[in-house]
Amino acid sequence: MPHTIDLSNRQPFASGYNRQCFRHPENPLLCLKVLRPENIEARFHRQSLVKKLLGKRRIDDNVQELKAHQQSAIRQLIAQGQAETVWRHLPRFHGSVQTSLGVANVSELLQDEHHRPAETLEQYLQRQGFDQPMQEAVRHFCDWLQSTGILTRNLLPHNLVVVKQAYQPKLYLVDGLGAPTIPGKLSAVPAWRRRYIGRRIQRFYLRIEWELGDRQQSWEHSQKL
Question: Which one has a higher pLDDT value, 150 or 221?
Fold first, then answer.
């Protein structure tokens, strides 16, 4: 019988609408992402009938994250011996395990210099603004996306964390890897893949601008290109 990790007396260090993040009780260098089933259920019931027919797996973030790590760009880089390129801006991924709160995805826990979970880009922007070091970090991250062809969903500041390396900030994408089904299939066409990634990057800069503004205009309206 597989080992079950007990999280019954643990508090998450981060919570999103769909998942909660826990420090692994047996290995503090790992993060456990656990679904919030009540919110998944509520989200499912808000879907149209057509989307409901596609099942709950399409809105299961853990299932989608497992699938995202199998995308062609990542598989090809690893097969070519370039795994380090993959993990340059992604936490190392270790599959899934069973916990007392359900199945969890396991990844490297990115930490600050005090061994606390690293702050998000959203928190950094609130504290420091879009300063020169972060402008460089964002440029390096976007260059990595374009050079590797790795697909993501819309890049949101709360889904990226900031790690200091050689006194400079570096960005890691901790949520939002992968693309919806149809864009994922169309990405086999190189020109389409470049256009898709380019639009994600454009929206990323728009989102940063929106985060730093007065937010009088909704993000949904601001992101239209």
Answer: 150
